[in-house]
Amino acid sequence: MCEGPLALRTFHEHHKGIKEMFGVDIGCDRKKNTYYVKNPEVLDENRLAEWLLRKYSIPQDFVTFNRMKDRILLEEIPLGQAFLDDIIEAMLSSMELRVDYQRYEYEQEEHLQTFHFQPYALKVYNRRWYLLGFLKEQNGLRTIALDRILALKVLSKSFTLPKDFDARKYFENVVGIYANPALPIVNVKLRAYGVQAEYLRSTPLHKTQSEIRTKHGEFAEFTYRLCETPDLVSQLLAMGDKVEVLEPETLRAKMKEKLLDSLAKYEK
């Protein structure tokens, strides 16, 4: 058996979970006393699995990862994990959820919402867990934040995941988690100044990013095809004076309004 700091029982638990969730089969090389991916071709088909294995250094060498766990610091998600196991189980078995939910805008008890939810997909964005699914009381797809769930119960009522549902496609035209099929896709042009251009080159704002103009040492211009959403505005505002929206005029005006509101707070 492969031995080391990682207990055999722990390995088998990881092995089972990774195989069930991602289809990745972890093998044990007894001669080298290491663990490896037995079916690496799966990683070409499952980008999430590939990312997890690469990002968290999980199974090419479990022992090495275990030894380095106190020196590899990952960004924590502070809230919203209490119901993850139940939600994933409901997704695997296609069972409905009953959710007690309270939005940030309404902290009073009278604004507590209880609804029935069919869980389709989970997404992490900006250090928060979100759940996309069909909200029966509103007869449509909605995205809810896990850290605003007060109580959750897996019901005995099953549902059928639509055959044409594709979580990646649902979010493909937005930055963040706010997606609305009714929103038009627009051409967005940004000008990034100084080092911000390098940040955008290394970490694109969106997969449609294309660099169309560069003035070395001064700025670079990028274009995108996406929807105008609150998350997009928030991301651009976070870049401060290092980015300027050139197009469309509606987004430029919205950015200007937000920046003027912020400035007014400092002038009081």
Briefly summarize what is shown.
With 268 residues, the chain is an alpha+beta fold. It is 32% helix and 29% strand.
How are the elements arranged and paired?
Blueprint lengths: L7 H15 L3 E4 L4 E4 L3 H5 L1 H9 L6 H7 L15 H10 L1 E7 L11 E13 L2 E8 L4 E6 L3 E10 L8 H5 L14 E8 L2 H7 L7 E6 L3 E8 L3 H9 L4 E5 L1 H18 L2
Antiparallel strand pairs: 1-2, 3-4, 3-7, 4-5, 5-6, 8-10, 8-11, 9-10
Account of the 3D structure:
A hairpin with a 4-residue loop joins strand 1 and strand 2. The chain folds into three domains: 8-68, no CATH class; 84-163, Roll (SH3 type barrels), CATH 2.30.30; 186-266, Alpha-Beta Plaits. The protein has helices at residues 8-22, 41-45, 47-55, 62-68, 84-93, 167-171, 196-202, 230-238, 249-266; strands at residues 26-29, 34-37, 95-101, 113-125, 128-135, 140-145, 149-158, 186-193, 210-215, 219-226, 243-247. Mean pLDDT is 84; it is low at 55-61. With 268 residues, it is an alpha+beta fold. The longest helix is centred in the last third of the chain and has 18 residues, at 249-266.
Task: Estimate the mean pLDDT confidence.
Answer: 84
Q: Could you give the order of the helices and strands?
A: HEEHHHHEEEEEHEHEEHEH
Beta-strand content bin: 25-35%
Strand order of the largest sheet: 6-5-4-3-7
Whole-angstrom Rg: 22 Å
Count the helices. How many? 9
Distance between the termini: 69 Å
Number of domains: 3
Major sheet, described briefly? Answer: 5 strands, antiparallel
